[in-house]
# Entry
Amino acid sequence: MIKNHIEEAARVIRAGGLVAFPTETVYGLGADALNPVAVAKIFQLKERPSFDPLIVHIACIDDLERLTTGITTLVRQLADKFWPGPLTMVLPRSALVPDIVTSGLSTVGVRMPENDMALQLIRAAGCPIAAPSANKFGQLSPVSAAHVLKQLPGVDYILDGGLTRVGIESTIVAVEENRCRLLRPGFITPDDIEKALPGRFVISRAKTDQLESPGMLKSHYSPKKPLYLLAPGEKQLPAGSGVILHGDNGNVYDGYQVIHTSHTFNIVETAANLFAALHAMEEDEGVKQIFIQGVNESGLGIAIMDRIKKASYRYQSLTD
Ligand code: TXA
Ligand code: MG
# Structure
């Protein structure tokens, strides 16, 4: 079930099956994007509502031309700077894209992942691959093949590429004329985009809780145990608590299960290790509830706090 044979996995895609595969962000649950029956299986296996559209993954820029109609100079410049990489562009769709992929929207989200296995799979399959994150709807995103298997044992094939490098999902932007609207914060920040194309872009920075991707629900990315934000200085926790920290700041949590996403408050490390830490706490039978430290909401910290807030939405604080 978990293997690393690209040709075999590509055959599954061509035959209309589902392949979970690594990208640099999280594992995706892929199907032939041009085969609506195959894509329907993604929604079924994930238990994903049909109003939530999928991202289409490509391996060469020609595919962008087949899938979309809105390729402006700015779109090309963004692709030049950030692809392959964790940036999804939402653009007007072409007639080739099945309705089920876009949930009937007039736009389609496209990205070229920066992961050799993913690129090889797309090339070997010979078609663009529609893929959401390979988790059950609303649950933790997978950053290893084992995480995929835990939630989606019914998948036809899991390509094992080890732990993903970035660890949180791509940044999603809607690109319109000379403007770019942030739909989901991710590894690439609005500052990164403005710096890459100085003066060319106005990027709107709606508050993250007002973002308008159909999939931006308040509760998402959640472990199957209560998750609480750790209040600064909070030391007395209930028995059976797991604690996720992002650096060593002298606070000692003796007697609790502790996992560090970083020992030095390195925000890139925290992004890479965030979901793995939450999965480990979810799987640890001794852990009844999880407390997680917050991070500063600037730069990449915005995307990290977006995931933490959504994962802990039902349990923001013990007194709520
Ligand atoms: O890093 C990633 O983006 C990963 C890897 C597998 O590529 N994929 C991922 O997919 O996170 P998913 O389905 O878990 O999240 C995709 C988000 C959803 O919130 C969806 O609503 C939004 O993208 N989306 C997709 N197409 C869209 C469109 N046409 N307009 C607005 N939002 C769109
Ligand atoms: Mg997802």
